[in-house]
Design a protein that fits this description.
This protein is of the alpha+beta class. Helix content is about 50%, strand content about 15%.
């Protein structure tokens, strides 16, 4: 564990110990190697071993190659670089300037970061909307942005399903998203998508998504950068109504709730993958009909020969 202490200067020695400077340089260089996501930094890193001498170039090349292969960078690797930096301080100094500059130049603002997250969300979510619009059908899918342990029912209400961006959040247009608090097993999803396909309007029956009567059902209204907002009946609404406490909230109606989206929105992948499963289920009727038609045509041809 590192501890801090007052700065004491001794004759012939700089206030900061050289070993601490070297350790800092090592951490900065290794961090840049481990996270070479920025174009400028990545370009520099690729050229480092060729731009500098063998002494410091060798451990950098070793760490760079390991990082590219997805291998673990060990303490021994860092120690080798640490020793090389101590022996070649001038070369290390020449490296640190471009590394820090490129990292700062590539730093995203809060607005840029938020924009990129929404772009990632809409890339997958609008693909689902495009399929709904083209097929003119509702869908039962696995999970949503906040969790994969539920079913999201995408209820088509118009002719051009899409997400609009306004006031810092995404909102559905020409469709509604309901969260059903059931385990999203393959059999349950198949059953719901079969029901949608059998319905002439390509919807589930109303009781399956009536969030005003069933507390297991929620209506999603907004998708924010790191949370979703939905409306659902309060699970303790009967007690709250019975207590009759002064409140501006009408607990007999669904109330607003927020739920955080985990870092990286891992459930988004399962949600998107389930679109293909739903498509297979809903199109299975036409595929089966084609097989039946072929069989009938074969029998008709056989009958004509007799």
């Amino acid at each position: 564990m590192e501890s801090s202490s007052g700065s004491h200067s001794h004759e012939g020695q700089s206030p900061a110990a050289p070993t601490n400077i070297t350790a800092l340089a090592t951490r900065i260089i290794v961090s840049a190697l481990e996270s070479a996501g920025y174009t400028q930094a990545a370009t520099l890193i690729q050229k480092w071993p060729e731009l500098i001498g063998k002494e410091i170039g060798k451990p950098i090349r070793n760490i760079r190659d390991k990082q590219a292969k997805g291998e673990i960078i060990t303490t021994a690797d860092k120690q080798e670089l640490n020793i090389a930096i101590q022996r070649n301080p001038r070369e290390a100094e020449l490296l640190l300037g471009p590394i820090v500059a490129s990292s700062v130049d590539a730093t995203l603002t809060a607005d840029d970061e938020r924009h990129q997250i929404f772009v990632a969300y809409t890339f997958a979510l609008n693909a689902i909307c495009e399929y709904m619009t083209k097929a003119k059908t509702s869908l039962a899918l696995r999970g949503f942005l906040h969790s994969e342990n539920c079913i999201s029912y995408w209820h088509l209400t118009g002719t051009a399903a899409a997400f609009s961006f306004s006031s810092g959040c995404l909102a559905p247009i020409d469709f509604q998203i309901y969260l059903l608090d059931y385990q999203p097993s393959s059999s349950e999803l198949a059953t719901l998508n079969e029901e949608i396909r059998r319905n002439s309007l390509r919807h589930l029956s109303v009781e399956k998504y009536d969030y005003e009567k069933d507390q297991r059902i929620s209506l999603v209204t907004e998708i924010h950068e790191l949370k979703i907002r939905f409306f659902k009946l309060h699970p303790k609404r009967h007690d709250l109504i019975r207590e009759k406490k002064a409140s501006s909230i009408d607990y007999s109606r669904p109330t607003a709730w927020d739920c955080q989206i985990p870092i990286g929105a891992p459930a988004l992948l399962r949600l998107f993958e389930s679109l293909f499963e739903a498509k297979v289920i809903q199109q299975s009727y036409l595929k089966a009909m084609a097989s039946t038609t072929q069989a009938v045509q074969a029998k008709k041809a056989e009958f004509g020969k007799k």
